[in-house]
Amino acid sequence: MPSSVMPTSSSGGGRTSRPAISAVGLRKAYGDKTVLDGIDLHIPEGSVFALLGPNGAGKTTVVKILSTLIGADGGQAQVAGHDVATAPEGVRNAIGVTGQFSAVDGLITGEENMRLMADLNHLSRSKGKQVTAELLERFDLVDAAGKPVQSYSGGMKRRLDIAMTLVGNPRIIFLDEPTTGLDPRSRHNMWGIIRELVTDGVTVFLTTQYLEEADELADRIAVLNNGQIAAEGSAEELKRMIPGGHIRLRFTDPSVHHTAATALREVQLDDEALALQIASGGSQRELRSVLDWLDAAGIEADELTVHTPDLDDVFFALTGDNVATPAEEAAR
Q1: d(CA 323, CA 130)
Q2: Which helix (H) or strand (E) holds 70?
Q3: Among 127, 142, 268, 277, which one is most buried in terms of CB atoms within 10 A?
Q4: Taking Cα atoms as reference points, which of 137, 107, 132, 97 lies closest to residue 118?
Q5: CATH number of this structure's domain 243-308
Q6: Is it the case that residue 203 has pLDDT exceeding 90?
Q7: What is the pLDDT at residue 315?
Q8: CATH code of the region 19-240+313-330
Q9: Whole-structure pTM value
């Protein structure tokens, strides 16, 4: 099994907490295709956990198992202290789920969608009205509440979708690709909503195809590949696993570029751009060493940039070309 950064029992804030979600050895196969091959998870309360992976890696399958929509073929999992196999009702009462595509009814109004969800959660008429009004206000949907949802923008539909998920006051929310299809502004607005949920103590299990999203939001990130967790840790821990960091020096004077290239060892040359690339982990000590060398040699670079691996680098290093076809993804 690939090596990984092992999870700890604390959230991004550093406080110890019991797990909102835990799983040991989760397995799932469709026919002769193994989708999950022994998945372990430990997600503290009040944190954001992001699951990344290529299309078809099984991210949605994990969400479906943990939300009791499908059963696992092996392993055990608990959500909010309830076993997903033996106490599914307890799990369902504690969670909210928002899928990749909006589940709202476009033919009725936003307020009617909310009231319908309140009825499904067995809220009294007065309580349902109160919760509906509060959530429409919170998600900036008051002005559109009386309009058919089919007239809403994509961002408005996603906000309504999450608002409906919160009607039952769940303490754990599964967001499966919550910003798919949204424009950058709507995506950033959704990030703000997710941060507010966590501030209120909600645990968020996030799957996303946007690596920047995981980097921005998640306390811990796991990369799912070939049915297994290829690596897990904070964004910074994962980035430190991947080589490829470097310091890039660029010159405008070809003679200075040549002098630096001759004097330095173990550099990559880019003669066309008059640049040098020096392997570096991006630490302050390494950067200071390069600057000291330039000063001592009387060489002045016109531009110095430091590149450290990002989540894109991590993702491609861990998953390679393991990308499923659309048909394989649809089956999962």
Answers
A1: 46
A2: none
A3: 277
A4: 132
A5: 3.30.70
A6: yes
A7: 86
A8: 3.40.50.300
A9: 0.75
